[in-house]
């Protein structure tokens, strides 16, 4: 979809030509074309365009007009006055993609502005924004939506007088964004069309394309291993559970990162049934699993060599069938810990506990990150603007905070002291799966902490950001694809 163009704006004759401009302190914004600047000055004098961030000007030049290219449309997009950053360019790219589709342009040429900034950062931010902003899920539309945007954007080309040295930035931005869009696709699929078996099928597909190793633990194997968490949660479903394991190996001497993603393909709450209002959104409860698999895809496509990776996705449904777990039941997790299931709607921690304990014992990773739509409590605390971060290791935490900031997916660290673990003591088992309502996001993480031992570990609670994330030009309604780019940036920028 993205490429650098050897054809400059003077000779471009396509659907849409785009210029980026800064908002000046005085006077009108300036582009790289004098004739376009004349139009900007006139519109600026009317008070209709000043170059504010996200502001745009679209016009349709007369064919053959002196000084203007023979193009269908010309768009000028404002960058505002704030400090130039990757996120600013990402938002600009999202605005351009969205506006292009509304104007029914299928291809465009974006003229890179001459600005005092890191050109690679600008190119990567724009490429991410263009791909993420062009995303639409239309698989189940039987006919064109008359109120929707125009045709899908097919191609975007970037032009710079000198683009040497930034081709990699364009590629990496596109790889990361396409992987996030794939995670959005997985989440948008109805639960009937994205089951545990679909997770397994896609993991096998990735392994075949990128030379990774894929292992699928079926129900019988998990029962033999004593994974009472995922087996118990699955008891009410007709769909068998599957535990997907994907390995990306670079060299024995490299550190190993274990990624674990919650793969609840539908969560009714089980016997502790959720309210019916909004339950359709519980098909999104697999967004952690999608993020982990799609991050693996991006790492493999980019051929990153600094870390060995193992991804585990415990996948199941949580339904109130006749054999479903009942409140008060006691299960035995992998490794032998017993858990009193006080609430069957706190099921994500049960399947993650099996995956974490198994992955740490088998692969002996140097560090672990799990990603899960785990608690509604994190939304109460942080809203839909930041992912909750809890960890037992400060350095791992700092690296994740930096990766989230770089990706435009901010994280916020919450405490994880021993006082919270005390709330999980059970009278009849080693643990109970829920504590008091207060501090629910923290006690959920405290439960997981019981299964990671001394291994450096971080937990990302994406319940508030996996969908209905902060409104941005490159974030659609519905699933955001959160954490894919954060994990990709974490691996990409790893320094031992």
Short recap of the structure:
34% of the residues lie in helices and 18% in strands. It has 14 helices and 18 strands. The two termini are 34 Å apart.
Question: What would your notes on this structure say?
Answer:
This protein is α/β, with parallel strands linked by helices and 496 residues long. It folds into 2 domains: 2-163, Leucine Aminopeptidase, subunit E, domain 1 (3-Layer(aba) Sandwich); 181-492, 3-Layer(aba) Sandwich (Aminopeptidase), CATH 3.40.630. It is built from 14 helices and 18 strands. It has helices at 34-45, 86-102, 119-133, 167-188, 196-210, 219-225, 228-234, 287-302, 348-363, 377-382, 394-407, 418-422, 440-449, 484-492; strands spanning 2-4, 16-21, 56-59, 73-78, 107-111, 155-159, 213-217, 242-248, 256-261, 263-267, 308-318, 330-332, 338-340, 367-372, 387-391, 411-413, 431-432, 457-461. Strands 7, 8, 9, 10, 11, 14, 15, 16 and 18 form a 9-stranded mixed sheet that branches. The protein has a 6-stranded mixed sheet with strand order 1-6-5-2-4-3, covered by helices on one side. A hairpin with a 5-residue loop joins strand 12 and strand 13. Helix 8 (287-302) packs parallel to helix 14. The longest helix has 22 residues, at 167-188. The protein starts with a strand and ends with a helix.
Question: Helices, strands, pairings?
Answer:
Layout: E1 2-4, E2 16-21, H1 34-45, E3 56-59, E4 73-78, H2 86-102, E5 107-111, H3 119-133, E6 155-159, H4 167-188, H5 196-210, E7 213-217, H6 219-225, H7 228-234, E8 242-248, E9 256-261, E10 263-267, H8 287-302, E11 308-318, E12 330-332, E13 338-340, H9 348-363, E14 367-372, H10 377-382, E15 387-391, H11 394-407, E16 411-413, H12 418-422, E17 431-432, H13 440-449, E18 457-461, H14 484-492
Parallel strand pairs: 1-6, 2-4, 2-5, 5-6, 9-11, 9-14, 10-11, 13-17, 14-18, 15-16
Antiparallel strand pairs: 3-4, 7-8, 8-11, 12-13, 15-18
